Records
---
Amino acid sequence: MRIREHMQGATMTSDNTRQGDPAGPKTGPAEAWANPKVNRHSLDGDRYTSPEFLQAEWDAMWTRTWLLLGRENAMIEPGSYQVEEVGPESIIMVRQDDGSIRAFYNVCQHRGSRLTFATEGTTDAFVCPYHAWTYAIDGSLTVAQDPEDFPQNPCDHLRLVEVACDTFAGFVWVNMDPDCGSLREYLGPLCDDWDAYQGHDWQRVTALTVRVPCNWKVLQDNFCESYHLPTVHPQLRDSHEDNYLDSRFDMSNEGHSRMVMKGATPSHTFYGDEAPLPDVVAQRLEMWGVDASEFATRPFEARIALQGAMRSAGPERGHRHYDNLRDDQLTDAHHYNLFPNCSLTFGADGVLLQRMRPHATDPNACLFDHWYYAFTPAGHDIVGAQTNVRVDGVDAGHQIFDFGERPMGIIPDQDLAITTGQQLGVRSRGYRGAYISGQETRIAWFHQIIDEYISGKR
Ligand code: FES
Ligand SMILES: [Fe+2]
């Protein structure tokens, strides 16, 4: 099958890597990814700008899907908790005495005050700032002022309203639908792919949350395509094979998708046969004890050499999870779009979580989280060089700021510069809907799933 003809269609299957390339990305079981037929989608401006569409999404989708909200190792001890906002809601996740994590709406059952404005901490109880009703970490109401003055003692029949909560790969998910299915069922083929990294203990080393003037879907659309890489992130040509013909794309019936892009290599598409050995690739070779000068004239062989070096030296350096990883997982970017609002890029020793959270009322605004979790072997530096991601350190705090106030790192700064400009365009009378390519099919799939939630098909 000719690739370009295939990619021009409205559908996309997993068989879209450059033919005859033995070093092309390998992946987990292809059969796990259904690669369903995807309809064309016009991506009308209204869905990015109208309060009515924002509300429809909230009612039919956000409150009925599993949402990645927390991190297990942010809540180690009983009573340690993490609080996250999503749209108009605030959810408390808290470690229990039995080691499980439970989640509750951050709402006092007396007259509705928010219980806590902290984002994380450790406590024996949550005490409402209004009249000091006190809730144990299991959500039970233990103290109410003047209980005899109520028709019935509130402690006997009121408790925090609980939200379904489950964990996987070190992350904590919640679901506001009391009749929801299981998290594993929802994640589908992501489970096997993510399990191999054994990343549940990876520590947060960067946590940036930015208030961005664009709809949350504009960002997720951007993370659903690699068409923008050569133009928006030209520096990636030094570390990735950034042409779509060399990448692999898959979609799942659950609404998730993935892209696998060769890393630790200069872009053959850009440089041709005369590519130099880029500094970033040379640094990775040296980091793993390979003499980079040997690859000065054969840079396209560096990726395989690096895989071999990581495979043999990894375990003795503490990277025991390499035994679970395929060779391509050692060097290549494995990028996942988790429906509805996350994009996770796995490298051998870390995962970049990019998460978009809707504004409570404004369709033209969202919160953008750019958080990186890394393997931190004792006695060794955090391995950040492979990902192009800024690393602030294990104890670095959570920074929350407005778009443009501070730099986030070159790649997210490049993405946000584009997406905030795109928001201005999609709300214009001059925007007549999108005209998308085959390699952008994952965007159409993402929007098709949203539509299916709103129309009641899901
Ligand atoms: S609203 Fe919480 S104690 Fe009154
Ligand atoms: Fe990007």
---
Amino acid sequence: MKSIVVAYDKQRGIGAAGDLLWQRDLPADLAHFKQLTMGGSIVMGRKTYESIGRALPGRENIVVSHGPIDATDVIAVTSLEAAYAAAHGNIFVIGGGQIYEQAIAGVDVVYATEVQQTFPEATVFFPALDDSWQERAREPHVADDRNKYDYDFVTYARTSGTR
Ligand SMILES: NC(=O)c1ccc[n+]([C@@H]2O[C@H](COP(=O)([O-])OP(=O)(O)OC[C@H]3O[C@@H](n4cnc5c(N)ncnc54)[C@H](OP(=O)(O)O)[C@@H]3O)[C@@H](O)[C@H]2O)c1
């Protein structure tokens, strides 16, 4: 199965200046991301890989780039299709914007963290989900000592027969 894992703000912003908008202010989202993806194959664009700065442990890291990737602990591929073909486990497409745009039509589930805040500095956005998608679960959380913003963990799936 193929899914997308993403965190976006109220305007669907996901990044600015090569980094996350909330940087280290939402550790609960990082934990959620880890729980979802652990043991699977994560597919990411070259810029997201560089932003993370290393391969994430316990997962097969697959990086999409037109050029070579100088790392021995990731699988480098030159297209999204090649990324899917290289994956051995459940596939989680983890961004960023360019890769989400290309992947959205072909995935079954979107695991979204909806951050209840607007970050005007956002320059990279997640595409809007069309009518073929339906919200299946929503888990709201309020800000606390460690997490600066309210956020919801939301699962979207395609309505049957639309793809
Ligand atoms: N909030 C979130 O959930 C989340 C998740 C991930 C990332 N982000 C943010 O998103 C931003 C990065 O997104 P982005 O859109 O700038 O970059 P990106 O999607 O991470 O990577 C883009 C790069 O991927 C490669 N690529 C894309 N399509 C390709 C294709 N069809 N074939 C071969 N290579 C392809 C190219 O690499 P080459 O130039 O090397 O050819 C391209 O420059 C950062 O700010 C990051 O922090 C946010």
